[in-house]
Please model this.
Amino acid sequence: MKNQSLILLVVAAGCGLVAMLGVKKAISNNAVEQEETVQVLSAVADIQVGNRLDELNTKFVEVAVSKAPEGAITSLEEIAERSLKVPVMPGDWILKSKLTEKGEIGAVASIPPGMAVVTIPVDATTSHSGMMRPGNRVDLLLTYDDNSSGRNVKKMITVMEFVEVFAVDARIYGIDKEGDQLAKNISLLVEPEQGKVVNLAKRLGELSTMLRPNGDMTLSGKTEISEEFLSSALSGAGHRNRSVMESRGSDVDIEFNGESSLDESLSQELARTPASGPEPSAPVKLAQLDNPNVWTMEIYEGDNVRLEAIELPMSAEAPAASNWNMWDLLK
Model:
């Protein structure tokens, strides 16, 4: 009996020793095979497009190298002077592909490459009573005065169709889609050449918009200002009536092309040949009566003749030539 207990004790001690060695070896292997970790930038708050990244809306999280996402941000230098191109939520990784180029912070970060933003004035009516939102599509219409026929005629053309509304006042697409019935400006996303057309159209007349469904890509009319229209408008048929100075007949033509300086315009005006005044219908004659102290003037007023008798306030003798003046007599 005593021998059996001793044998069991030895066996138990051997099993414990084997188990201890196994655990020690396993721990040693895990320590050798443990992966390296890396600090990866993660969002801790909702961050909208164009917002600057800092320690208030991001933090570094330690993860294994094998689990780190591709393009992860691992240092603050990588986000200096950059902002997000897409919105992120808390817990999202901040990746290089989501960042703008250096210096692109704010609204410019939301402008796609190759595009531009042009702004036009609106009111409660042209902004469709506040129903217009960033991201909507509109047709841009131009109403102008056509004077080519010699009389003022209101006309309307379509400048562009299916243009995306980039912003309503300061509310930018992708950041805030709320409209405002008191909006004063809307910004449109256009190509650079189209932006020139829109800015020119603002000078030629009044711009208005027409809301379109986002899925409707149907083009129904002219989508740009043609050369024929520009020729007509800039010659006085599209944007303003001729001024008094432009309408005045003379041998010198003054061009208002926006490039002439004030000095040049004044020089052209001074170079005009003064127009001769209308010839009098009949010369004014002075009829001297028998009374030397009373003169009678015949004044011609159109077809009527009026006689005015002027009594001289001096003797009948003629005044000296050196100080005699007709205007003194009329005072």
